[in-house]
Amino acid sequence: MANVNLIRRAEIGREKRVRTRAQLVEAANTLFARRAVESVTVDDVVQEAGVAKGTFYTHFDSLEALTAAVAEELVQSFDELLQPGRTAITEPALRIAFGCRAFIDKALNDSRWAAVAARMTAANPQSGENLRRRLLEDLQHLSAEPPSAELKLEIVVGIMLHMLRVLGEGRLSSFDPDAVVSAILRAIGLSLQEARSVLKRLPAAGTEKSLRTTAS
Amino acid sequence: MANVNLIRRAEIGREKRVRTRAQLVEAANTLFARRAVESVTVDDVVQEAGVAKGTFYTHFDSLEALTAAVAEELVQSFDELLQPGRTAITEPALRIAFGCRAFIDKALNDSRWAAVAARMTAANPQSGENLRRRLLEDLQHLSAEPPSAELKLEIVVGIMLHMLRVLGEGRLSSFDPDAVVSAILRAIGLSLQEARSVLKRLPAAGTEKSLRTTAS
């Protein structure tokens, strides 16, 4: 009986920790939506979450670690939203183009989202593990032409992360999402004609709204 | 006469500031060469430079700002080393390929250099101004096919920065520099045949040593 209580108590502790961590991530997310990421302090976050400052440091080493967790959360949840639309596509190159353009459209529509997501890399270059794994699988189904699928993955990730950063900072005078997707497709080995054909067959307008429609 | 003295005194002050700043950058550079960038503290830097801690903060807001300055210095001085070899090339695409492969080879030969250089972005996304300007000029001489030269610049920068990061972390099992350069050339609009032709005409082996030879 004592044993059962101990197990249950450990469980409650674990659940509470998960809840508190989620509260901190949620609080940071709310603050980032309201003002510049740079201006948010640990004090702001604990006040918003309604927890003690010491609690913050039992969950995160630093504000940067929390920002990375927020970014991971933003990217993962958007990626999950894409899955129904993505898995309905059978052609690997079209699947890659679909994912890339959805992320670019999302970043275009929400520069705050893009800025926070781009920070993920700085704090954790191997983040977005599910995303990377799925992208690698698609790349392995493309032609075996060099570079290797492993290197193609890094090329796509490099372009996409930089685009999120650029869109997060809003520093390009004009931006053509299709041109970026085409550049990505060509970098991973498609010809101009093949890239054009993929773009033509992409489900129209990858805005957040239409993605929700695709996903539902 | 008093006026001249004041001017001279201001000059001496300026020179001293420039010297102290350079001392701090040099000290950090020495420390980064010896051990992991993450393990270096402000105390280590001031001790190595032989200056007071307060002096550090008159020159840099934080250790990150100093790391960015070190990175900027590393990248700029390597870029300057490349200029003689680069300006001898008249074809824009070949010039771009020359620069990219030289940076990749440098990163392959010196992962510490790559790791520090990659940090530049995190701290200052618009860094490497000379490099960006020159690259943009070359891109403007390529075909006017979309994406715009401005967007092509960000695509090249995105791939290159990510490659520096990846090589700095040493996390790819194999790495083919030519395959990356080819991917870059195709992303900015060259066909596979054109990219192959450029690679064939690239001055052989862009190792640091041969670059020094080219530059001298």
From TrEMBL, chains A, B:
This is AcrR family transcriptional regulator. The keyword Repeat does not apply. Keywords: DNA-binding, Transcription, Transcription regulation. Residues 41-60 bind DNA. GO terms for molecular function: DNA-binding transcription factor activity; transcription cis-regulatory region binding. Residues 18-78 form the HTH tetR-type domain. Gene3D superfamilies: Tetracycline Repressor, domain 2. The keyword Transcription applies. It holds the Pfam family TetR_N. The lineage of its organism: Bacteria, Pseudomonadati, Pseudomonadota, Alphaproteobacteria, Hyphomicrobiales. InterPro entries: Homeodomain-like_sf, HTH-type_TetR-like_transc_reg, HTH_TetR, TetR_C_40.
